């Protein structure tokens, strides 16, 4: 059961957070890659609502079941590209700041695949999914009902 229902959110909260989401979506980053990253971060944060949403969205944008089911083991799996590995590694580091830091090498690894502007957008995208995970954890929106139309 939700602790705070969607219609009970303070006026403007959803709109402001969603505006950041729209900014990220318009950044030009590959949506399939973003969904893979969002799914992985939501696994780390144990956000069931976001896992449901981003699994469905990733599938909508062409992601395979195999890659989604095994993304927690991406380091050992042979079917993630080096670019995807760089993003997943970076996203994990940013998500787990309480136990690790983003090193210069982590940051530089992204520069093989992204411009500085894209790295900035990717960093915001990782921060944004962490924000959504925390909101959903606190509010306890009911998972399972998201439709990826």
From TrEMBL:
Keyword Cytoplasm: no
Coiled coil regions in record: none
UniProt cross-references to InterPro entries, sorted A to Z: AhpD-like (IPR029032), AhpD_core (IPR004675), CMD-like (IPR003779)
Keywords tagged on the record: Oxidoreductase, Peroxidase
Molecular-function GO terms, alphabetical: peroxiredoxin activity
Domain Carboxymuconolactone decarboxylase-like, residue spans: 17-92
One Pfam family in the UniProt entry: CMD
SUPFAM superfamilies given in the database record: AhpD-like
Designated name of the protein: Alkylhydroperoxidase AhpD family core domain-containing protein
Organism: Roseivirga pacifica
């Amino acid at each position: 059961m939700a602790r705070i229902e969607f219609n009970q959110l303070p006026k403007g909260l959803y709109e402001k957070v969603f505006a950041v989401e729209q900014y990220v979506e318009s950044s030009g980053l590959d949506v399939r890659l973003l969904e893979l990253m969002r799914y992985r971060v939501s696994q780390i944060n144990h956000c069931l609502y976001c896992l449901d949403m981003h699994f469905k969205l990733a599938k909508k944008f062409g992601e395979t079941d195999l890659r989604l089911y095994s993304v927690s083991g991406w380091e050992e799996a042979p079917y993630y590209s080096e670019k995807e590995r760089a993003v997943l590694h970076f996203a994990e580091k940013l998500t787990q700041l309480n136990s690790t830091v983003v090193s210069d090498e982590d940051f530089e690894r992204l520069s093989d695949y992204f411009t500085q502007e894209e790295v900035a957008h990717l960093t915001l995208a990782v921060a944004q999914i962490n924000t959504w995970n925390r909101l959903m954890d606190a509010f306890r929106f009911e998972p399972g009902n998201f439709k990826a139309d």
